[in-house]
Amino acid sequence: SNLVVHAFAVTARSNAIGEDLVQPFFHSMRMDLTETEHDPKSFDDYVYGSAEVVGLMCLQVFVRGLGLGDAAKAELVAGARALGAAFQKVNFLRDLAADFKRLGRSYFPQVNVSNFDEVTKQLLVDGIRADLAKSAACLPKLPKSARTAVTAAHLLFEALNEKIARTPAAELIERRIRVSNGRKLVILVRAMIRSL
To answer: Which of 54, 58, 115, 190 minimizes the number of CB atoms within 10 Å of its CB?
Structure first.
């Protein structure tokens, strides 16, 4: 009776999205009900289930019927996981204030938001840059039908990460970083050009 769930089920069945991707997603969503801090393992599990599997689900749709070889598929899987991880980590950094002050959550292991500093911020930003670089290498290998949209999302989160890098740590824990609508339009045009 729920049209959203029904639409997902139809898409999942027609694109071979199985429980191996769906269960980790729900596991991560349940973690938000009880977990307020993460160690390295629970952080990796959370990011995989909340973001990397979403990239893998999208990839299943994008490459359906293409008959990719194992090596090509493995490369795209690595890129999709890296992009999903980058998206989630950027969102964690953007939402530091809300997560910590309103919800009492701290996602990054061993990161104390109450004394968040430039060194910590830079380490996190550099990790995101590595994820984005890994995923960028796979963008040209995506089918044309998906390339522009994924490239636009990649460029948007790259711009957000660079804005976070330029924002003082003390400011980052007080407000959410965003990219202006004008900048988003420029990013979309760049994505269209790059994907040709």
So the answer is: 115
DSSP per residue, 142-166:
S-HHHHHHHHHHHHHHHHHHHHHHH
Which amino acid is it at 95?
Answer: D
Give the amino acid at 31: M
Report angle CA 23, 24, 30 to the nearest 5 degrees.
90
> Encoding tokens for residue 122?
């830079």
> Can you tell me the distance from the alpha carbon of 49 to that of 85, in angstroms, rounded to the nearest whole number?
10
Please state, in angstroms and rounded to a whole number, the distance separating the CA atoms of residues 186 and 101. 33
Residue 98 is predicted with a pLDDT of 80
Using only C-alpha atoms, what is the Rg of the chain?
18
pTM over 0.70: yes
* Residues whose CB falls within 8 Å of the CB of residue 143, separated by 6 or more in sequence, listed in order: 62, 63, 66
Span 44-90, pLDDT tens digits: 999 999 999 999 999 999 998 888 888 999 999 999 999 999 999 99
Q: Chain-wide mean pLDDT for the chain? A: 92
Q: What are phi and psi for residue 106, nearest 5 degrees?
A: -135, 105
- Count CB atoms within 10 A of the CB of residue 89: 23
CA 124 from centre of chain: 14
Please provide residue 103's backbone torsions phi and psi, each rounded to the nearest 5 degrees: -105, -10
